[in-house]
Fold this sequence. Notes:
By secondary structure, the protein is an all-alpha fold. Helix content is 46%, strand content 0%.
Amino acid sequence: MLSGAPDNVALLLRGGAKPGTGPDGKPLIHLAAERNRMDVLPILLQHGLPLDAPDAHGYTPLLRALTTRAFDALSWLR
């Protein structure tokens, strides 16, 4: 879902797509944070994905952004 344009992501979510996890099992909010997707992070938050939820390894989106040096996402998430 993250590979599309932000408008497409928003359209899918409004249409009922479940924003839970991506293809590798990570929550989408974590994927957006580690990939520095500043165009998608606010959309995911608007659809209820929590900023402080840990993934299967205990990482929050903030920690994912930090470990991947996604500095824009890191600044935005803190």
